[in-house]
Each structure stands twice: as structure tokens, then as C-alpha cells.
């Protein structure tokens, strides 16, 4: 993808890049490393929109555990990257109301998309 961005000849600021934090990242450190890894692999200074792909890891999707603590930790990593200018917008994907309420209960930056 990053090669396509560079090869397009379109200035970076005219492109909007969205990517997802894999559903299995449910810790601050894991999410932080994943964000940094995405930026490095794509050789970008920032990502326009990064979303948490799912409130539950895919191999545990549909179980009773909603991974509230892990999602809050991952969200904190997104907020920190947002505050640092590495991400321009942060959001959620496949989150149900109970999962969104969990994020809203502790976030400093509200999700910009679900």
C-alpha cells in the first residue's frame, strides 16, 4: 500500500489512509508497537484514521468476555498516538453499544467513527 501511495505521484496530504489495529491487540504496549510498526512498514509520518478492528479477538469473537480492560488499554495507545500527531483520527469498528460505552467511560478523546 505504501508503495502505491508513493508511486501515485499524489501528494500525501491529498490522500486519506485508513487502517485497523488488529483485533488481537488488547494491551497498551501491544497496540503501541502495532501502531509504530504500521508507520514504519508504510514509511509514513502519520495515518489519517486508525480504528480498533473489533472489541474481541477474532479467535474469541462471540464469547462472553468483552475485553473491556484490554480495549481501554488499546484505546489509550491510540489516544497517545493521536496526541503525538501520528494518527489524525481514531475510531472503532464492529463495537456494540456496551463496548462503545466502555470506551466513553474512560477516554480523553472520543471515537471519531464506529
UniProtKB/TrEMBL annotation:
InterPro entries (UniProt xref): AKR, Aldo/ket_reductase_CS, NAD(P)_OxRdtase_dom_sf, NADP_OxRdtase_dom
Start and end residues of each NADP-dependent oxidoreductase domain: 4-113
Keyword list, A-Z: NADP, Oxidoreductase
Coiled coil (residue ranges): none
Record's keyword annotation contains Hydrolase: no
Keyword Nucleotidyltransferase (UniProt): no
PANTHER family, sorted: 2,5-DIKETO-D-GLUCONIC ACID REDUCTASE, NADP-DEPENDENT OXIDOREDUCTASE DOMAIN-CONTAINING PROTEIN
Family, per entry: Belongs to the aldo/keto reductase family.
Name this protein carries in UniProt: NADP-dependent oxidoreductase domain-containing protein
Amino acid at each position: 500500500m505504501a508503495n502505491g501511495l508513493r508511486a501515485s505521484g499524489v501528494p500525501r496530504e491529498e490522500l486519506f489512509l485508513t487502517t485497523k489495529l488488529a483485533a488481537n491487540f488488547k494491551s497498551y504496549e501491544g497496540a503501541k508497537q502495532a501502531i509504530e510498526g504500521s508507520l514504519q512498514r508504510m514509511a509514513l509520518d502519520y495515518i489519517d484514521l486508525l480504528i480498533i478492528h473489533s472489541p474481541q479477538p477474532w479467535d474469541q469473537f462471540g464469547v462472553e468476555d468483552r475485553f473491556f480492560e484490554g480495549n481501554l488499554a488499546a484505546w489509550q495507545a491510540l489516544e497517545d498516538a493521536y496526541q503525538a500527531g501520528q494518527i489524525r483520527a481514531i475510531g472503532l469498528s464492529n463495537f456494540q453499544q456496551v463496548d462503545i460505552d466502555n470506551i466513553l467511560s474512560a477516554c480523553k478523546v472520543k471515537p471519531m467513527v464506529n
